[in-house]
Structure to design on (250 residues):
């Protein structure tokens, strides 16, 4: 009997000792998944971040707001990969959980814009402005939609200007306003907008090609051709895209 009692006490002792160790392991796993999902230091690939968010979503200990945020962040990673279907599914889930989530509406508007679903993009941009009128995203997307459609260009400029008043280095708004300036022949202002966008990290086909056209119009032929060649290497159809805006090289 004494041996059984001592043996039982030993087992209890082992369990008590193991419990903190198990809790510590669980915490380490949770913390790794959280870091992967948020990826605030950009230490993980989009695929690793998606895994981290997916694991967080399945954890019963996550609160409703925490789960909604994990869906939103996973959608952002899918958007980086241009996986529009999965990105939209995650943003839709966030909106079902929290219908007033401006970040989900904003990112969903960007996906709709990338897909050419302009009416849906505009509707979501309007929702963002209604929820958080002091942030630039909704105004900028509305500007981009109008630029892409080549309609209501005065309203587009007002929206881009509003976005840039809120955030002077919103690179997408700078690029969209650059297109508007090219259309009106304000070539120095166009060059300045595209150059500022590139300087602040938006070195993409649109900004390079736009700066190239502005440079050609300003008489800086060598500089302009260099930018346009670089843009066409990034996106072969960029010339046709600018032509759809009503903007062509001189």
């Amino acid at each position: 009997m004494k041996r059984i009692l001592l043996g039982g006490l030993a087992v209890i002792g082992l369990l008590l000792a193991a419990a903190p160790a198990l809790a510590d392991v669980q915490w380490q796993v949770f913390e790794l998944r959280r870091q992967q999902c948020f990826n605030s230091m950009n230490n993980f690939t989009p695929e690793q971040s998606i895994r981290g968010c997916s694991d967080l979503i399945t954890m019963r200990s996550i609160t409703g707001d925490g789960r909604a945020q994990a869906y939103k962040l996973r959608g952002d990673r899918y958007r980086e990969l241009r996986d529009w279907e999965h990105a939209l599914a995650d943003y839709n889930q966030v909106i079902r959980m929290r219908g007033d989530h401006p970040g989900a509406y904003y990112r969903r508007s960007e996906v709709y814009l990338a897909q050419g679903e302009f009416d849906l993009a505009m509707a979501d941009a309007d929702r963002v402005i209604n929820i958080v009128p002091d942030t630039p995203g909704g105004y900028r997307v509305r500007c981009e939609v109008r630029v892409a459609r080549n309609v209501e260009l005065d309203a587009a400029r007002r929206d881009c200007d509003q976005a840039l008043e809120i955030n002077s280095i919103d690179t997408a708004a700078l690029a969209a306003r650059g297109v508007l300036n090219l259309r009106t022949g304000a070539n120095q202002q166009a060059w300045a907008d595209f150059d500022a966008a590139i300087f602040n990290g938006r070195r993409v086909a649109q900004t390079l090609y736009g700066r190239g056209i502005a440079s050609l119009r300003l008489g800086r032929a060598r500089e302009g051709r260099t930018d346009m060649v670089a843009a066409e290497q990034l996106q072969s159809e960029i010339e046709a895209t600018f032509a759809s805006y009503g903007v062509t090289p001189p």
In short: The first helix runs from residue 2 to 38. Residues 1-19, 21-25 have pLDDT under 50 and may be disordered. Residues 187-250 form one domain.
